[in-house]
Write a structure and sequence with these properties.
The protein has 285 residues and is an alpha+beta fold. The chain has one domain (5-282). It has 8 helices and 12 strands. It has helices at 33-53, 60-74, 85-103, 122-126, 130-143, 180-186, 217-220, 251-260; strands at 109-113, 119-120, 151-162, 167-178, 205-207, 228-230, 232-235, 238-241, 245-246, 268-271, 273-276, 279-282. The strands form 3 sheets. Strands 1, 2, 3, 4, 5, 6, 9 and 10 form an 8-stranded mixed sheet that branches. The chain has a two-stranded antiparallel sheet with strand order 7-8. α1 (33-53) runs antiparallel to α2 (60-74). The longest helix is centred in the N-terminal third of the chain and has 21 residues, at 33-53. The chain is globular and about 55 Å long.
Amino acid sequence: MKRDITGVPRPEDRYSPSRAPAYGRYKSKFPSFRKAQGEARKRARLTRNVVHKGTDAFDDQKALALAERLLASANGDETDSLACPIYMGRQRFNIGGAFWKLGETGDPKTFTVIPRDWIYTPDELAKLDPKLLIRRFLAQLERKGIRGKTGYLFAGLHGEYDLNTGLFHVHLHGFVDGEMVDVVRSLKKLPRYRFNRRRDIRSPIRIRWKSLTNLPHPLIYTIQDWWPARYTFIRDGKPVRGRKRRIPEPYHTLLLLWLDQWSLSDVTLMVGMSVGKDGLVVKRV
């Protein structure tokens, strides 16, 4: 039976994300189970509160049912949902360990892809099929000749809520190695990904060329367990993105309900790799 990304086994102790050194400005570490429990309870509380206050942004009964599952998960009865931080924590732990082991065997480069047309109102997001976005990105890679190249690529769907506009901006975080690095780089030649200083706050495609030194954190970043909200400010004539914060209700719960519809394999892409009984296997495509 073919395994999907959720079939990655628990990593060896040496590749345990919880044992990885702290990283970043705030010396962050892999989230603990207790922290995931607290987040699950908070999401359930916020969802219940917005339902009780009244909203027409989503189905109240579905929202309350999700809140019950999140609370049950925090109490030991885990729910397999992208909206559940406990489930996502376990998946990120297993997959992150596999990524760490894989990253040590090559020189992967991380990238971010921000398509200009992946911007949605809350109502549009609620109806969005993420598999279509993944297939669209794969088709672009195939047009640039990724088939038959050596190396591998992984990408995960993520998004932010723009507090200025009330819109969701969907994008991809990924990493790539071997000949496939040049394929991702060549996407910059497509009109949809060319940087335009007049309209783009950030380049539609960003690739980090330096070798990764703080594994596994940059690789685990491709699978995230929450979507932030941000304001954009104008400072000295240039747009500046504000700090991350929780998406306001009712749009936070609307996002959770959307995530709850999909599996991890629906929002991720693997090229040149597969999941075996011992972890990730690199193959020629």
